[in-house]
Amino acid sequence: MAFDEQLVEKYLERAMEEFTTNPLAVQLMRRLAIEGRDLFVRAGLKYMHAPDEGGNAERMLGHLLLRQESLLEQLASPEENSRSQATDLFKRFRKMDASFDVRLARKLPCRGAWSQPGAFDGGRSGRALDILDETSQGRRLLPILGHLPDSSDPRISTRATLFVGRRVQTAEWTARQLSRSDPRIRANAIEALWGVKTATAMHLFDECVKDPHNRVAGNALVGLHIGGREDAIERVIEMSNDALPERRITSGWAMGRLAVDGFAERLTEMVRDEDLNVRGMALRALMLIRKTSPAPLEKRSNEEALAQSIAEDQTVQEDLVANIDVRLDGKNYRAR
User: Fold this and answer.
1) Is pLDDT at 36 greater than 70 in this prediction?
2) Rounded Cα gap, residues 310 and 186, in angstroms
3) Relative to the CA of 202, which of 52, 70, 137, 218 has its CA 20 to 30 Å away?
4) Cβ contacts of residue 278 below 8 Å, gap of 6+?
5) pLDDT at 323
6) Is the pTM of the predicted complex or chain greater than 0.90?
7) Which is nearest to 103 in space by CA: 83, 118, 88?
8) How many helices (H) and strands (E) does the chain have?
9) Which residues of 63-72 are buried (b: 16+ CB within 10 A; e: fewer)?
């Protein structure tokens, strides 16, 4: 029978609801995965967004989705999910497949073949790099992605600069990126160096405070503060008095990012700035400073700890039923 989106959603909902009571539910899910394909992925991801991941139905669904070619494309599509939603979904799938980050990385353009068949476009590549930057630790993906800062597509090169730079973290590598004309690449190269306190790194931060682009200068000031430079706070406040509103905005962002109590007074003054965007950034920075004030950490409840333990220990039983052919008639499903 022909599948449409509404029909796939209806059958999948039925199978999920009856998973523990109807042995045919497993076979129905498998058939939807084979014959519904992209529609099955779109419908299935709605269930994977749910916070409860301890049930066998969700586990079975997850493993079926992992076999679909279009899963990575839908996961990396900015139109399908927000960045935070896509990242949360990715983490969930990676619990089931430890190589899921490698699979996603291989969907990005290869070295010397920016238009190879099946590679993500710029929008999906950018989102994939955002996801990988938040979830994949260490240098294991550098052999696959290390060339991407040189991409001609700025949606790829800017994010790849941050991804690669955070894993290389050398002043020498960052210095090479600072010759690039795109200020977003320079800014991301400086951000990737945050936390490095060598003399060469601190010199780069110092020089980049003079960069004509406000974001590059702001990231450099943050790098100086993280590196322990005592004059960084004074220089952030100095930027907040700049004649250019975009530099005042960046100073407000830096104050919120660094969350130093001494910034509150200046930010309160900036709330009355003549520029609307400066006022908005000052308010957001003040809220961030209040949120990051020292507070006791709350312990997880016993229920949360137990739920996580159960979720980690349970395994999906894919072969609950065997040799059953499921027939669909548009309303029900039953053994043939």
Assistant:
1) yes
2) 45
3) 137
4) 245, 248, 249, 252, 270
5) 45
6) no
7) 118
8) 19, 2
9) bbbeebeebb
pLDDT averaged over the chain? 87
Report the candidate in 106, 114, 172 with the shortest Cα–Cα distance to residue 136. 106
> Which residues fall within 8 angstroms of residue 23, CB to CB, at 6 or more apart?
320, 321, 324
Tokens standing for residue 274: 């003549």
Q: Taking the CA of residue 100 as centre, how many other CA atoms within 13 Å lie in the half-sphere pointing to its CB?
A: 25
**Taking phi first (over 0 means left), then psi (-120 to 50 degrees means alpha), and beta for anything else, what does residue 116 get?**
beta
Neighbours of 96 (CB within 10 A): 14
CB 50 within 8 A of CB 58: yes
Phi, psi of 147 (to 5 degrees): -90, -10
Which of these, 315, 316, 327, 314, lies nearest to 27 by C-alpha position?
327
What are the E-state strand segments in 141-276? none
| CA dist., res. 84 & res. 241, Å (int) | 34
The pLDDT value given to residue 50: 75
Core vs surface per residue 304-315: b (16+ CB within 10 A) or e: eeebeeeeeeee
Pure H helices in 193-243: 199-208, 214-226, 232-239
For residue 52, pLDDT beyond 80? no
pLDDT over 70 for what percent of the chain?
A: 84
Are the beta carbons of 148 and 106 closer than 8 angstroms? no
CA distance 280 to 210: 25
pLDDT in tens, 76-129: 999 999 999 999 999 999 999 999 999 999 999 987 655 567 899 999 999 999
Beta bridge partners of 110: 113
- For the chain, where are the E strands, in sequence order? 326-328, 333-335
Residues in the chain: 336
